[in-house]
Write a structure and sequence with these properties.
The complex is a heterodimer of chains A (147) and B (76).
Chain A lengths: L1 E3 L15 H14 L6 E3 L5 H6 L6 E4 L5 E5 L4 H16 L22 H11 L1 H19 L1
Parallel strand pairs in A: 1-2
Antiparallel strand pairs in A: 3-4
Chain B lengths: L5 H7 L4 H6 L2 H11 L11 E3 L6 E3 H5 L4 E6 L3
Antiparallel strand pairs in B: 1-2
The chains are: A mainly alpha (147), B alpha+beta (76).
Chain lengths: 147, 76
Amino acid sequence: MFIYTREAHPGENVVHHDSFERKLACARLLAGEAGIGRDILVDDLDGTVHRAYGLMPNMTWVIGRGGRVAYKANWTSAANVEAFLGRFLAGRAGHPPGTVPVMYETQQAEFRYTDRKRFMRDLLRNGPRAVAEFEKAQQLWAERAST
Amino acid sequence: MGEADCGSIAAYNYPRFDEYVAAGADMADEDAFRASPWAGQRAPDFTLPRLGDGAQVSLSGLWRSRPLVMEFGSFT
């Protein structure tokens, strides 16, 4: 399931949301052009759900049956989520004879593989301003890293 | 979901990504993620409209019978 948040990189073609109607229109663009087949739920204009789950622009969360957080990631890697789900779903059932499954928590660094060219194309689809502003942000990040 | 004032909505839906980063708001987002519910805690429940038919869908209804994978995002 996909939750549509604020536009991370507003531009001339995909503007920042100033009304819920505009947000819905942008969500429809996403469904059509990005070809998302899953259900898309649209967060309210103030980002209430987005705020509750932590405001990063492309998170993935897994909530177990019963409503407890099983997995939270501040960026999305489909491969890593699938690997986690494989372990999580097998976890309760796949224990060796004579043992019982006991849940524990980890926090770990993971890698995702970004396609920079595709990302820049997506920014350009939002509008040239989205590209220019991202390039300015890259300079800001570089300055931050050097201090 | 409570009422949100115009300032809050305008701050959330920033018009310029570079100004958002210059204000340090991207770092605040990372802090917000770290402060959000962690593994084992109860996930916040909300009801949101589904794109297409507008049906009101509750998150708890989705995770009741099977684990729910939720991806947050926008056009990029």
